[in-house]
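Throughout this chapter, every protein is written as a compact record of paired, labelled lines. An example of such a record is reproduced below:
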Amino acid sequence: MNSKIRSVKKQSIDWSVAFVITLITIVDRLYNISRMGLWPDEVFTAVIARPGISFIEVIKGALATPIPAPPFIYIVSHIWMKIFGFDDVTIRIPFVIAGALGIPVIYLVGKTLFNKRVGFISGILLFFSAMHVFHSREARYYPFLMLFSMLSIYFLHQGMELKERKWWVGYIIISILNLYTFHTALFVLAAQGIYVFCLALIDFSFKKIRDLQAWKKSDLSYYMMSIGIITFLYIPMAPFLIKGLAGSQGFSPGGTPVRLKSKFILEDMFFAYLKGQNKLFFVYIILFLAGLVLSLKSKSKPIISLLFIVSLPFLFMQLISINHWIEFKYLIFVLPALLIIISVGIENFATFLSIAASIDDTQIPIWENLLAVLMLVGVFSINYPYYEDGFIQNTSYWREQGEFINQLLLPNDIFVTFNMASSMTMHPSEMFSVYFDPENNNQKEVLIISTPQELSELLNQYDHVFFHHAPVGNENLKEIFSWIKDTTHIKLKFGSYTMIYIGKDTSRDELYEHVKKYKFFIAPDVD
């Protein structure tokens, strides 16, 4: 009886600690989150999930992108904005929460697959991970992809170890949520499938197959039934994925081969996910290899599943050609798996050093913990330079461009943008709807132009034209630039985007006087 009470108390404490850690992470990730406006990918989320439309329109909007996007994050964002409204901070909060939940979940996974110390170290590494900090503050699918991938690892392990149906039900639900979050969740499912089948081959015998009852209770049987249900539930999304991959942004013999930049796969992977630098970079690789080798030496099965999740996407990337660019963040589920393996390396390395130093047996746990903390400090020192800003910020200044137009557009001015429908997922006229309201600025809509003739006609009708364009190459755009050189204009830079302010019957100084109160960079002429 006393042992049951102690167990309940212990679980209660664990949940309380997890809750506190989650709150601390939320506060940390929310710090200064309004500093930057939404960048283009976040604007996609805001436009597709905007609160003024129906659920069906949200789903249609997600599926209308060049490679149709699974609708889960858009539905979550849509419900959230319907309840709490829209601004740069509000739309990001569900993603901050998902990212924060990843800390206790990676602890749970590390503890369940290995031990408490591995779970603890994994949680600290993820908390201070520059990649996690940055992408859990972003209104995109990345934190949900990490969270669901970690949970699927946990439920699969529990299902195989405890042989209880509830864990397989959990695995099915989490896997479906993951697949409807982003397409690359298929890699997680594939890696887990290879893992289960490898274990089944190791344990294979014809005698077990003939024993129907034993077969029904086997891991492979439960897994195949789970995959059957997952496949059935994924059927509605599958045609859209196939259509996207067969389209202009999908697989193509003439597409760009996806290759890693470095000849050394570990270097490329570690730099992308762990942001190592200079000579300290080798620390990550040593700890990863230590975790891998020592776990395989002890015949640890869970390490194999993590290794498949880390390696399978990169092996696949070496074989395909695709028209859409590939970034490591699309495979962000690799990050927690990588950190858990590194944590195993830290834990094992600390144990090895404690034993090698011939420390008294009763003192070994203390020294192991101390060494683990010191190693964590060393690893964190590699991440620290990137912690505050995360990865390179997406300085597209979409919010600033909208605010600029809202403040400075006069009654007889017009705002237009270049027709770039073929080179962008969403047209700027749609994207500006987040920050710029045409009706409040005497425009029915953001006008789209393609030729210098259209721009010339507008300048005849209006006093000033604000011409916006994205950093893309286009023959028509070159013709427009050539025409603009003969006009009175100034060029305004908002990160990589450009706004050209063109005036009629005015001087460049007068144009400058009108816009100088707003923060931007002015270049002397059009490129």
